[in-house]
Predict the 3D structure of the following.
Amino acid sequence: MLSKELTKILSEQVNAEYYSAYIYLAMSAWADSVSLKGCANWLFQQAQEEMAHGTNIYQYILERGATPSFAPIQAPSADFKNILEVFKEVLAHEQKVTKSINNIATLAMKEHDHACYQFIMWYVNEQVEEEASASDILGKLELIGDNKAMLLTLDNELATRVFVNPFPAK
């Protein structure tokens, strides 16, 4: 059985993952509106991934005999100047999520809940990938600058991303 503290912090993470999905959907809609369909695709795939993360954490709480709590999901901003600003926000957001995941790992260690610690370590490792991916795209956008032809090349690259659920149905 999960402790009340771990149940609370994991429930907050479920909310954070769904909020992340909202952020990425808003960013995807903005990118679509400025004809960056590949960027819109990448961001939409990211939203699907965040939903899967939230659902997986929710199911883990239930598997451990606890009941998740739910809070309202904040509306995301949907106003962006350009795609560079979008991906700066992506990276900043992923860094914030990393801190939240690390806090869960720290609490699980403090409570000697080895099962929860093992569970959350998947997310710790996932966040390394998330930050690296966002940083890579951001770096490319900074190199591209105002070169529209190169932006379209990157957009075409980002159009190839496909969501693969890391948590197949049991």
Observations:
- The first helix runs from residue 4 to 33.
- The chain has a mean pLDDT of 97.
- The CA atoms of residues 127 and 161 lie 18 Å apart.
